Amino acid sequence: MKAAIQRLLPKNRFARSVSVLAGGTVAGQAIVVLASPVLTRLYTPEDFGLLAVFASLLGILSVVVGLRYELAIPLPENEDDATSIAALNLLIVLGMTALCMVFIVLFRAPVADLLNAPALEIYLWLLPVGLLFFGIYQVLSYWAIRTKEYPAIALTKLTQAIGITGIQVCGYALGPLALILGQVIGQGLGVVALARKIKKPQCLSSAKDDNEVGSVEYSKLKSEKNDAKRQKCCLCLGNIKHQASAYREFPLLATWTGLASAAGMQLIPLLIFIYFGGAAAGYFSITHRIMSLPMSVMGQSVGDVFYREAVDAYRQGTLGALVIKTNKILIVMALPVVLFGSLIAPQVFYMVFGAEWKTAGVIAQCIAPWMFLQFITTPSTRIYPILGKHKLALLFQVSFFLFSIMAIGVGSLVFESFISCVLFLSLGNSIIYLVRLLVSVKLAGGSPLVPLSNLANHGMVSILACSPLVILYAYSGDFHGVDKTWASMVLVTLVMVTISIYRLLMVKKNVN
C-alpha cells in the first residue's frame, strides 16, 4: 500500500511535498466536512455565533502570542540560530499566555459585554488555554517546515480534526461549551502529536550527549549580524538575545501585519454579530468555514512548502519563476471548482444542511471571488519576510483591515440587507487581493502580466465548462422538488469532472 501511494505522488519535490502535506490535511478536513451536517442539526446558529466570537478572539490573539518570531525559524542557515529563535519564541508564548490569563480573570465580564455576547463570559477562561496550545503548535510547525518534515505536520492535522469533531459531536449536550472545548482540545492534541514526531535540533542532542546543556561556552558575536562567526552555541542566553535583535523587524512590523490580517478576518464575524445579530454571524461563520476548508487545505499546504522552498529559491536567484509557476498551478486547480461551486451553492446548502441554512448558500456565492483570489495570492505573499518587505506587507493588511471594518459598519447603514453588505465586502477584498498578487509577482522578479494572462486564459475555459449549468438552470426552473434537476446536476458534474481531470493532468505535466 505504501509503495502504491509513493508511485502516485508527483516526482517534482515541491509538488510531492505539497501532496504529502495536503493529503493528511484533506483527511482531517474531510472529517470536519462530514461532521458539519450533524453539527448543524445539533447546534443552533446562535451556538455557532458564540463559537465564531471565541474563535475570532483566539485568532486575533494568536498572532501576537509569539510576536511573529516563528516566521524567522526557517530563515537562518545555521541550525543553532534557528534553535535559539525557537527557544525565544516559546518563552514569549509563555509570557503572553500568562498576561492573557490575568486579563481574563480581571475583565472577562466587560469583554463579553463589549462584544454584545454576555453568554460568552463563562467560556472565556478557555481563551488562555487555547492561546498557549496555538503558540506552541506554531513554533513546532515552523520547525517542521524548516526541516521539511511535512508528513509530521499532516498527521497533526488529522489528529486535530478527530479531536475537534469528536468532542463537538459527543458533547452536544453541553451546548456551546462543547463547540469551544473541541477547538481548544483539538489544538492541544496537535501539539502533542507534532512534538512526538519532529526531530530535535542537532545541537540539543549533541549537548545532551556531552552533558553540556545550559553550559556551552559562547563567544562574542562580531558586529555584522549576517557574517558573524562564532563558536558552537546551543540555547545560550547571548545567542537568544542576538537573534531577538537580528530579527527584530518581526515583532516590530510583522506582528502588526499579522494582527491586521487576523483582525481584518476575525473582526468580520464579530462586527456581523454586533450589527446583524447572532444568527447572521452564525450563517457567515459556517459558510466561511465550509468555503475556506478546501482553500485552506491546499492553500496552507502550498504556503508552508512554498515558504521553505522560497528561502532556497531566493538564495539561488530563481524566486520569480517559483512564484509564477506556483500561482499558475493554483489558478488551474481552483478556478473551475469555484465557478461551478458558486452556481450550485444555495441548492447544496439547502439539501445538505437543511432549509434553515439556504441563506448560507447565498453568502457562499457572494464570497466566492474573495475566497478564490485569497487562495491564489496568499502563498506568494510569503516572500515578504524573506525579502524584508515588512512595511509593504503591513500596508496591504491595514488596507484589508480598514476596508473590512468600513464594509460592515457603513454597509449596515447603506444596505438594507445583510447579503448586500457581504457582497460589498467580498468585492472590495477581491480587488485588494488581486493588487497584492500583482505586486508580489513584481517583487519576486516576474511580470505582473503573467498572472493576469493566466486568469484570463483559464477563466475562459472554466466559464465554457460551466455554461451548460446556466442553460440547465433556465430550463429546470425551481431547483427544489424537481426531479429533472438531479439529472441536470449529474450531467454538469460529469462535464466538470472530465475537464477537471484534464486540468489536473496538465498540472501534473507542469510540475513533474
Automatic annotation (TrEMBL):
Topological category with respect to the lipid bilayer: Multi-pass membrane protein
Any matching Pfam family: Polysacc_synt_3
Compartment list: Cell membrane
Transmembrane portions of the chain: 20-42, 48-67, 88-110, 122-140, 161-185, 267-286, 329-353, 359-380, 392-411, 417-435, 455-474, 486-505
GO cellular component term of the entry, any: plasma membrane
Primary localization class, coarse: membrane
Keywords assigned by UniProt, alphabetized: Cell membrane, Membrane, Transmembrane, Transmembrane helix
Protein's name in the database: Membrane protein involved in the export of O-antigen and teichoic acid
